[in-house]
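Q: Predict the bound structure with zinc ion.
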Amino acid sequence: MDSYDYEGCCEWNYRLGKLWDSTRASLSANFPRASFVKVVEYQSRGALHTHCIVRIPLREGIVSGLGARKILDVARSTVTRTGLTWGNQGDCTPIRQIAEQDKFVRYMAKMLTYVTKDSDVLHHETPPQAAQHYRRLDWTARHMHCDKCRHMERPCLSLCHRRWGARSSVMSKSREAKKHRAWSSVRRMDLKQRRIEFAQEAARLGIAIEVLAKLTAAKRKLRQAEDYSPVLIE
Ligand SMILES: [Zn+2]
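A: Predicted complex:
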């Protein structure tokens, strides 16, 4: 554990978004109609790992095996301004969306599992040695110097200090454009609008329940008063 590069790990997590942006730009230059959906997943050592589906229309004229190799070559040759590159463990497998629909759906499901994996971890016991490793990662991330630290008073409230350096969203996808279809008809702003409407509805419902509870309590009081009020017999 002493030999583990905690600073390097947090730095990798912090800069990964920039590496992905550069990679996406290089891929788009080579495959203009390509669209992407990407998921990042924490590996058990705390470093982020990226999974991505690149959708390339058949009219781009690539041969499936060669296309996968080219994607990998483009990704591997991408270097950010700070000199960050992908590791040499990258892999790229061709999936034909129509002919191998099951395989495509399975991979999408796998990616969604990566998104929900973090919350699942909370339900399991962490071995003491791993817990110590994560505490050191926590400490390193809290004390790392992010781009915003320079402009803010201490303590810096950036998310990266609480997420082992990570700052990009867990999942991202290409927007719908003339060149390619959307991955989903649901947009983030639609989801945001639905959340607002749900909260408003819940608040309205909350108020309605409160009013109903007050009315019921008042009714009960009235009934009790009626039950015990003296009856005048003349
Ligand atoms: Zn900061």
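A: The radius of gyration is 27 Å.
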